[in-house]
Amino acid sequence: MLERIVTALVLVAVVLSCMFATQSHYPMFMLMILAAGVAGYEWFKLMPRNATLAAKPKAWLYGGCVALVSALALFYNDVALLLWAASILTWLVSLYWVKSYPESDSWYNASLHVIGFILISAAVTALYAVWQSSPWWLMYLFLLVWGADSGAYFVGRKFGNKKLAPNVSPNKSVEGLYVGIATTVIIMFVVQYFYLKNLTTTQLLLFLILSIISVFASVLGDLFESMVKRRAGIKDSGRVLPGHGGVLDRIDSLLAAAPVFAAGMYIFKLIGIDL
Fold first, then answer.
1. Is 10 part of a structural domain of the chain?
2. Fewer beta carbons within 10 Å, N or C terminal of the chain?
3. Which mean pLDDT values do the consecutive 10-residue runs of the chain (275 residues) have?
4. Which helix (H) or strand (E) is 170 found in, with range?
């Protein structure tokens, strides 16, 4: 437990320092590239393979390529937008995969290598784009995802009777999901009270819808990564974060939530909603 707490404190300190400690974009940029590379490495280990153990050089090469694609997308907005669109479409398809598991696992094939490129690159570029908009909006996204997840976990663990996806993640419950949504609404209205007073009722409703959809996406991201790990026969995606597992274990929810939230913010700007 102590190891888990120390790792969490160090991780929070590093992320917050990159977000708020300097106006330079380089610390956040490098953090995103590093996260993409390590997540890519961990993703490769979850892929179908003939050998019992994934070859580390191949895994690091894959992780390096994911980091390279992510860096390219961070420089070119059009590439990032394409990744977000491809990611959201992939998550919509994955909803069927999660629902049909374990009766069907035809999705567990070589195409997951491409899917990993899309999901990881889209997530890190989305996180970076939200941070560029404002570090506080990235903090809001973190609060949404982790607040909803924490509320769902504690309430679902004690009162959850109806399982959300028992074959994928037995601890997830429908009751926990409801609490997660309620937590989202509370967080959104607190933010609205202090920071979004100039928005109209329609604009606030749209922002609330985006927040709730982002939380739904975060749950799907969590379930999908759990399903891939279960199919691969691996408990944790890695060991780089003592007491927490791997980078993918920490950002699984954000893999889906970040592109959805970033795309929503982008659409808001297009239609004239200034957040």
1. no
2. N
3. 75 86 86 94 86 73 94 91 96 93 89 94 96 92 85 70 80 82 86 81 89 92 91 83 79 94 94 81
4. strand 169-173
In whole angstroms, give the CA distance from residue 270 to residue 218: 24
Domain membership of residue 117 (yes or no) is: yes
Residue 117 makes CB contacts below 8 A (sequence gap 6+) with: 40, 65, 66, 69
State the CB neighbour count (10 A cutoff) for residue 6: 12
- Closest Cα partner for 257 from 158, 161, 163, 141? 141
* CB-facing half-sphere around the CA of 243: CA atoms within 13 A: 11
> 59 in a domain, yes or no?
yes
Number of domains in the chain: 1
Tell me if the pTM is above 0.90.
Answer: yes
Flag whether 208 is in a domain: yes
The two structure tokens encoding residue 207: 């922002």
